[in-house]
Design goal:
215 residues; 8 helices; mainly alpha
């Protein structure tokens, strides 16, 4: 049986889904949520070997979104809620990263941390985004010390593309000042992908611990 969900479908879901959420009226967000949860359910059956990692990603992403958006107020979704499609959407993006991590050219893998360093430094010096250095440090630690550097770099790039698309459309907006500290924040921060790297690292950690207990 051929896989039902392919990377192209996930990419189209993210691109088109955010447009429908933003411009689809009262039914836009419910329809996108229903579609994304349907894909998530199919993916649970299709990717049985990854099921534990994907479920861990779902739970961690849900908790992370609640803390970062609803509690801390680091960014706001356009309706002031946590859209139901967001947690399973993180899982789809994570699965996409797992599919593409081994396909990125070595030059892209090698250059991305240095380009990120240059971009984050320029934004910080210009006073546009002071959160970048801290997020970049998290990203670099994941890359240099984590077990899956290619995956973290892939997710960093994928999440940056999604952040640029979502903020441009207006699905969510990062606060202009970091709550509690007042540091300037770009919309989106260039190194926002660090959050996704931590999500991936924690999801993989759950799988590794489960495997150790099973053995």
């Amino acid at each position: 049986m051929k896989p039902v969900i392919r990377p192209t479908l996930v990419v189209l879901t993210i691109l088109v889904g955010l447009v429908v959420d933003r411009h689809g009226g009262a039914w836009g967000q419910p329809l996108v949520s229903l579609w994304v949860w349907l894909l998530f359910g199919v993916l649970m059956f299709q990717a049985a070997a990854l099921r534990l990692r994907l479920l861990a990603c779902l739970l961690i992403a849900t908790a992370g979104e609640g803390v970062l958006s609803l509690v801390w107020g680091l960014y706001d979704y356009r309706l002031g809620n946590l859209p139901l499609f967001v947690p399973p959407g993180h899982v789809l993006l994570y699965w996409l990263g797992l599919q593409w991590a081994g396909r990125l050219p070595g030059r892209v893998i090698a250059l991305t941390p240095w380009l990120a360093l240059a971009g984050v430094s320029a934004l910080a010096v210009a006073g546009i985004d002071w959160t970048g250095p801290a997020l970049l440090a998290v990203f670099l630690v994941c890359v240099w010390r984590g077990p899956s550097p290619r995956l973290y770099i892939t997710m960093f790039l994928l999440s940056l593309a999604m952040e640029l698309w979502g903020t441009w459309l207006g699905n969510w907006t990062w606060r202009s000042a970091l709550p509690g500290l007042g540091w300037p924040v770009a919309n989106p921060p260039l190194a926002a992908g660090a959050f996704y790297c931590v999500l991936d690292l924690l999801s993989e950690s759950v799988r590794r611990r489960k495997a150790c207990h099973a053995s």
